[in-house]
Amino acid sequence: MIYINPLDGFLTCLTIRPFNHSTYMNKLPFGRANYTLMVIGVVIILLGFIVMSLDTEEFGFGALGLTIGPLIVMGGFILEFFAILRRPTNQ
Q1: Can you give the C-alpha Rg of the chain in angstroms?
Q2: Its domain of life (predicted)?
């Protein structure tokens, strides 16, 4: 295709290729290991909330509700953060 650049006044040749959707649409943003780590992280977060709910002290002021459960939840969020930032091995 030939067009005239209005700023220069010169003829410029432009080649237009058809857009190949298969190369752009089939790539997932994360690799298989990333998704596996994300699922494990969500399970750990849910496990931490279950541990917090198992506390028998009034208002959840026992060791499970104040210490162990929140540490498990924080570990799950750290794993989620790592899973998002980890580069896939095929790149």
Answers
A1: 26
A2: Bacteria
pLDDT, mean over the chain: 82
What are the residue ranges of helices labelled H in the chain? 21-25, 32-53, 63, 69-85
Token digits for 12?
């410029």
Please indicate whether residue 44 or residue 59 has the higher confidence score (pLDDT): 44
Q: Is 70 exceeded by the pLDDT of residue 20?
A: no
Distance (Å, whole) CA 88 – CA 91: 6
Bridge partners, 13 (sequence order): 2
Alpha-carbon span 7 to 34, nearest angstrom: 48
In this prediction, residue 2 has a pLDDT band, given cuts at 50, 70 and 90, of low
How far apart CA 42 and CA 73 sit, in angstroms, is: 9
